[in-house]
């Protein structure tokens, strides 16, 4: 046991303080109840969909805890654009010389890591956002994210299959689910706007899970990415 502790310390000895502090948070026991869990719903806007060549333009996130969206506990950053794709500007609206404070990729990742801590991360079609973040971490010489990650697209299908009102093979977009729940889509295609819409969807989905009094976080995490 002591040997394992020294191996862990040696493994992370060459990593920055913020990463070691982040990693240490996963040593504590996670909450058992969903309502005691901190979920961080996040989204990325990128220059495109190529995991190797494209880059993150912005990251938006919001905290969901105790059956409510903590609006004041939100996160939004813009990254310096070393790569520019004019074709995607019409989607996310982030122009190359936009006058907002922009951080380097390393600085942005540090702030994101410090914000998410050991929370359960949530995104829509989470595999894309997760890989973009992990690729960025790799470019900066950092390990992959340690958080458990849920996908609202997967959760949506799981809650609806029970009633057989859903195509089991269909991949539902954020727009389709939001429209099904009559959510306003005016802030679509900004990282913070998409994170907030995804948080609303998560709240609606969790409402279905709360009906099961015996449900625990471990049951929800059966659907993690």
TrEMBL record:
An example Gene Ontology molecular-function term: DNA-directed DNA polymerase activity
One of the GO BP terms on file: DNA replication proofreading
Domain Exonuclease as annotated: residue spans: 38-211
Any one of the GO CC terms: cytosol
Xref: PANTHER family: DNA POLYMERASE III SUBUNIT EPSILON
Function according to Swiss-Prot or TrEMBL: DNA polymerase III is a complex, multichain enzyme responsible for most of the replicative synthesis in bacteria. The epsilon subunit contain the editing function and is a proofreading 3'-5' exonuclease.
Subunit structure: DNA polymerase III contains a core (composed of alpha, epsilon and theta chains) that associates with a tau subunit. This core dimerizes to form the POLIII' complex. PolIII' associates with the gamma complex (composed of gamma, delta, delta', psi and chi chains) and with the beta chain to form the complete DNA polymerase III complex.
Protein name: DNA polymerase III subunit epsilon
Species, as recorded: Christiangramia salexigens
